Amino acid sequence: MRNKRFTDAINYLRGIVKSGEDEDYFNEHKERYAETLSLVPNVAKNLHVLDVGSGFGHLAILIKKIFGYEVYALDHYNLWEERFHKHGIRFNLCELTRENLPFKESYFDIVLFCEVLEHLFVLPHKVLFEIHRVLKPEGLLILTTPNFLSLYKRIKVLFGKSPFQPVSARRDAGAPKTILENTAWMSFISCYKRLTLRLFLHAISKQGA
Questions:
Q1: Domains in the chain, ordered, with CATH?
Q2: Fewer CB within 10 Å of terminal CB in the chain, N or C?
């Protein structure tokens, strides 16, 4: 997606992100945002959209600004709750691996589950089943997760580098740069191949049918 509405929304978001991790994450993922938003259907009616693991709220805000849909955000901490409310986005606090999603069945037209799967410390079948439960039968799930088997990451491993995102210098001020560049985020718990995800989703769809 590279139209004027997207450009205006990205420029707006760039203006409200805070310096530090919020800004770093925006700069690193803005190209991914464009790819993700290109999957969101642009229709005249008001769709219900859920952003699971909404984090800083970048995607939820972009969808609200570009499409005007009814957007819900959900995460296990409420650090950015005020930001969501300011933009007319309903925020819900929920621990994905321990609680059910606080919504009725078949409520959402679109569910985004972007860059969250790899952080779960348990197998994702419960979370995926809950997403399937709240998604309409003809609804759309947009799921993204880092490709740790990409050629670029394999080359990094070949040369003794970590394939994961390096630890931010802001988090470990004073640590030598060489250590920071070769230290992986500890929050990356699981890596999934495309086939594995397809098998999970197929099994969930059969179970929830």
A1: 4-146+193-208 (3.40.50.150), 149-187 (no CATH)
A2: C
